[in-house]
Design a protein that fits this description.
The protein is α+β, with helices and mostly antiparallel strands. It contains 3 helices and 6 strands. The protein starts with 13 loop residues before the first helix and ends with a strand.
Length: 162
Amino acid sequence: MALSDNQTQVTPSVLDRLIDLDPQESREAPKSRSQSLRELKAAVRRDLEWLLNTRCFLESPEKGLDEAKRSVAFFGLPDITGLSAQNPAEQLRLAKAVENAIRNFEPRFLDLQVSMEPPTATERALKFRIEAQLDIDPAPEPIVFDTVLELGSGDFEVRPEQ
């Protein structure tokens, strides 16, 4: 027997279940799977943007303390102030830092791939593409974000694939 659309809702994160967008209502209206999936993808985008816009100023944990790098003390990206956008080695280092941060702090992603477009000489931004499978039941869902790092401000903007 096939499950109806309402019976296969996507479960939101704990944070999203605690946030009450309509406190006047005592119960949430039932949502379709497609609506709950849209909301989950929007929440993942928000969480990813928070992760990429948080700076971690701690050095790497000591050897043998590998689990420490997944603790909240290491949440975010290393400081990117002074990053040379035209230096390929620094571009690669930043792309790897983005990928490592997502791997460590976004457990909803499977098969993560982070790629970066080479910037032109006049661009004041770096563009990344984040591709993964969103780990949901009954089957993973592809998810893609086009992400821009504004070099002047150091802010990341995460957008759904265009």
